[in-house]
Amino acid sequence: MLQNRFGRLAATALAGGMLMGAAACGGDEPATSASPSGAASSAPAASGAKVGLAYDIGGRGDQSFNDAAAAGLDKAKTELGLAETKELEAGNGETDAAKEERLRLLAQGGFNPIIAVGFAYSGPVKKVATEFPDVKFAIVDDEAATGPNISNLVFAEHEGSFLVGAAAALKSTKNHVGFVGGVEVPLIKKFEAGFVAGAKAVKSDIKVDVKYLTQPPDFAGFADPAKGKTAAEGMFDAGADVIYHAAGGSGGGVFEAAKAANGKAIGVDSDQAKTAAEDVRDVIMTSMVKKVDVAVFDFLKGATSGAAKSGTTVYDLKASGVDYSTTGGQVDDIKTKLDEYKQKIISGEITVPKEVS
C-alpha cells in the first residue's frame, strides 16, 4: 500500500535517527457521551496550538482508517488556526518502547495536544501521558489507557457493521458472503460480530465465511493488500458474492479480488467508493463509515478551546459516529430497509452483539 514519504521524513527528522522501529495496529447531534467523570486537561491547548499525530500502521494514504484521522487533522488545520502540525508514521513490528519514544519526542518538541491513532498505542499513551501531565493526549479505539490528561475516542463498530451485514445479505444472490479481518484482535472481532448479526437478521441461513490475515503480535494484516486479495479470492472461489473487509490498507486487495470475480465488496472506516483506487471503486457497494475524522476534529476543537474532557467519548449510531455509505447508488434500492434497521438499533429494539457467538 501507499506510504506517505513526507510523514516518514518528518518522523526521521524529529527522532534524530532514534526511531528505527515501526508501530502496530487498524441526522443526530455529534457524539458527546464522554465519561461523566472526565475532567478538562490541566493545561488545555490554545488556538494556534502545535498538534502532534502518531499514525497506526499504514499511515496517511491507507485509504481507510488513518486517512480518516488525517481528514480530521486537515479540517482542524483549516478551521482552528493551528500553529503547526507534526504527523509521524509507523510500521509493522516495532516495540512499545518505539511507540513511547515517538510520543515522547512529540511532547518534548512542544506539541500539545497529541493524538495516537489506534489501540496499539494503549500502553505507550498511558506511560507517556504520566510523564507529561500538562500535555493533553487522545487515543483512538482504546479505553484501557486512562488518566486525567487522556481522552479516549471509541466507536460502536458493531452497530455500523450490522447495517452493512444486512446490506450484504440483501444483495447476495448466492446466500453466501464473507468477512476479511486484518488482525484477530477484540476490536476487529466487533466488526465481525456486527456483520454476521446483520446478515443473519436478513437471512438466518446465510453462509458467512471469516478469515483473519494475521494474528497478534503480527499486525501486518492491516497493511498487506496481497494477503487481503488471496483471502478474498478464496471466498469468491468458494461461492461468496459479497465480501466485507475490516483490514485497513489490506482492503485494497479485497477490492481487486472482487473486481476479478465480478463480485461486490464492502469498504470500512472511510467511504471507500471515494477513496479507493479508481479502477475498483465500482465494486464497492457500500462502506461501514467510522467517523474517525469527526472524533479527531471534535477533540482538537475541544482542546484548543480548553473544553476537552478526559475519559471515554463513544461515537455510536445514535450519535452518527458510524453509518453506511450510499456513494454510487448501489444500495439505493435497499436504503429504506437499512434505515429501518438503523432506527431499531437506535431505539434499542435491536441490540447488536459485540462478540461473536
From TrEMBL:
Transmembrane segments: none annotated. It is a lipid-anchor. Keywords: Cell membrane, Lipoprotein, Membrane, Signal. InterPro entries: BMP_lipoprotein (IPR050957), Peripla_BP_I (IPR028082), PnrA-like (IPR003760). One of its GO terms (cellular component) is plasma membrane. It comes from the Bacteria. SUPFAM superfamilies: Periplasmic binding protein-like I (SSF53822). Residues 56-354 form the ABC transporter substrate-binding protein PnrA-like domain. Its main location: membrane. Residues 1-24 form the signal peptide. It is found in: Cell membrane. Pfam families: Bmp. Coiled coil: none annotated. CDD domains: PBP1_PrnA-like. PANTHER family: ABC TRANSPORTER GUANOSINE-BINDING PROTEIN NUPN (PTHR34296:SF2), TRANSCRIPTIONAL ACTIVATOR PROTEIN MED (PTHR34296). Belongs to the BMP lipoprotein family. This is BMP family ABC transporter substrate-binding protein. It comes from Planobispora siamensis. The gene is bmpA_1.
